[in-house]
Write a structure and sequence with these properties.
By secondary structure, the protein is an alpha/beta fold. The chain is built from eight helices and eight strands, in the order E-H-E-H-E-H-E-H-E-E-H-E-H-E-H-H. Helix 2 links the parallel strand 2 and strand 3. The chain binds D-xylitol-5-phosphate and zinc ion.
């Protein structure tokens, strides 16, 4: 699978979201939208009404990352609104199979996220219900944090696990992904890369996306898992 870059609007200017999304439109594959409820994580961002508005103005497919306490209730609504991917947290979902199926039934790809301290092995039997597994490479809640290298061994194990099941599930990393860290992620098995501050703090966000893609492609071409 080709490298995909999903810039996070968490580091964008929230008063100019549509313009900020357009700035990376020609360079990126997805627009990553971080929904936070001030309960699952200690930060509050945007919810369904803003996602619905964004969908009217943005041509990139929207990748919703729900950092909320009750994804079972709220996740299907994001898929019904038109988000192309909806990711829920394993730590928050009480009925992940039902919710992942509801996301798919509404026409979106279904993602499952795990925090840095959450193992992936317990979710092996759920892989058939997933289109993407998100391994957080920071504790969720804020942009601009330092990348946690301790997640890399888990990423390798996740890549092996996905390969054993046919390799169809995408492996996303989110948190601290930059030109300094993206090669390590690609080498360990990631194929979808979220980057917030690395893109939106750059003078030219589209160029920042291209630079990230180039490095990830180079590292993937040299990675043992991709051969
Ligand atoms: C953090 C969010 C990320 C965040 C990443 O909880 O899920 O998507 O925007 O920001 P950076 O790339 O700056 O770490
Ligand atoms: Zn995110």
């Amino acid at each position: 699978m080709a490298v995909q870059i999903s810039p996070s609007i968490l580091s964008a200017d929230f008063a100019r979201l549509a313009d900020e999304a357009r700035a990376i439109e020609t360079a990126a594959d997805w627009l990553h939208v971080d929904v936070m409820d001030n309960h699952f994580v200690p930060n509050l961002t945007i919810g369904l009404p803003v996602v619905e508005s964004l969908l009217k103005h943005v041509t990139l497919p929207i990748d919703c990352h729900l950092m909320i306490d009750d994804p079972d209730q709220h996740a299907p609504g994001y898929a019904e609104a038109g988000a192309r991917n909806v990711t829920i947290h394993a730590e928050a979902a009480k009925a992940p199979v039902r919710t992942l199926r509801a996301i798919r039934a509404a026409g979106a790809r279904a993602g499952l996220a795990v925090n840095p301290g959450t193992p992936v092995e317990p979710y092996e039997d759920l892989l058939a219900e997933l289109d993407m597994l998100l391994l957080m490479t920071v504790e969720p809640g804020f942009g601009g944090q330092h990348f946690l290298d301790l997640v890399l061994p888990k990423l390798r194990r996740a890549r092996d696990m996905v390969a054993r099941h046919g390799g169809a599930v995408w492996l996303q990393v989110d948190g601290g992904v930059s030109v300094e860290t993206i090669e390590r992620c690609a080498d360990a098995g990631a194929d979808v890369f979220v980057a917030g501050s690395a893109v939106y703090s750059a003078d030219d966000p589209a160029q920042a996306v291209r630079a990230l893609r180039e490095q990830a492609q180079w590292a993937t071409a040299h990675a043992s898992w991709a051969r």
